[in-house]
Amino acid sequence: MSLEKLNEALRREVSKLEGEGRAKARERVIVGYSPPKPPYGPRYRLQDSDRDYLRMNSNSYLSLSHDPRMLEAADEAAQEFGVGPGAVRFIDGTFSHHVELENAIADFLDRPAAKIFNSAYTANLGLALAIQTKETYWIGDELNHNCIIRAMRISNVPRENKAIYPHNDVGALVAALEGVPSSIRRVVVIFDGIFSMRGDNAPMEEIHAAIEPYRDRFAEGLVTVVDDSHGIGAYGPRGRGTEDHCGSRADVVVGTFGKAFGVNGGFVAGSEEVVEAIRQRADTYIYTNPLSVADCAAARVALEIADSEEGQQRLSKLHARVAQFREGIEALGMESIPGPHPVVPLLVRESQKTKDMVMDFYESGILVVGLAFPVVPKGDDTIRFQINAAHTEADVDLALDVLKRWKA
Known about the structure:
Layout: H1 4-19, E1 30-34, E2 43-46, E3 52-55, H2 68-81, H3 89-93, H4 96-108, E4 113-117, H5 120-131, E5 136-141, H6 146-154, E6 162-165, H7 170-178, E7 186-192, H8 204-211, E8 222-227, H9 242-246, E9 252-256, E10 266-270, H10 272-281, H11 283-286, H12 293-306, H13 309-331, E11 343-347, H14 351-363, E12 366-367, E13 369-371, E14 382-386, H15 393-404
Parallel strand pairs: 3-12, 5-6, 5-7, 7-8, 8-9
Antiparallel strand pairs: 1-2, 2-3, 4-10, 9-10, 11-14, 13-14
């Protein structure tokens, strides 16, 4: 067979990852869902298992994905227009639901315009393709998400036209700005709003104050881009994300409907000019089918809920459960990274112990994720917990009961 040699090479490459401890575990398959049964929240069933599991590894921070209003909106849209668009956006694949969702997320984030993508990953790639030139310089946080790193690569940013600063080190960011060559006409400072492995946020107010003196230095501007996929909907007093928490706005926002809003898809929100450049130049927008109308309709309802009194109640409940879990970890004397975000990392710092603890959670009916190098730096082996609005006090207590067994 023609694949024999390639297959053998790929087996060696995967075996090397396994030997280095970097291979991904086999994926578990969810085959069932059980609604909340007080005092507990929802549970999930896995293939080849006869028990129900509590998910503490889900990005669905507001627990909206099973909301009947969203399910009804998705069904009505699909019944009217079908389950797929049948074309890319510029070849009559744009439906009213796409435009309505773009207007809704722009309004939610108080931006002039927005453009939606199939994911925040492709949104970051598309933005980079749209705004990159040979005279553009990129400066990013060392812990930026993989999609930002890939965005620089796919848009062919040369090594000499980018700088990486240590995590949240605003002084180093300023030093990088000082080192920008005089030939550069455009500078992009890009960072995560919430760093997804740590649950901490970019100090946006400090960043913007520090770079303000450099705003007029470059002929085509100095702009900030925040990927706030883990923040929007789940962070800040109004659920508007890291901007809301910090009281400072980026020039361009990248985000997702796939986390707090519980649906699918990503977006870029900014000026009308940035959005039109995306429409004209972003390969990951132009050459692929868009979100289904069902996704768009459900996401619109999610935004309406998040922007309502009910949304504030869900956010308050989420914050209460986060506080309960964080206080429990602190009471046990265990190490975490402080902050109010629902991503709560437990720093275990030992690879085997992390694996053993993750297995203990699994055998106790709780799904969590262990993180090792290269997802996190060497020596920072972590268990990442993600709190959702559907979690109850009893659910959080179950997780804390497991941790008590590991108290030093």
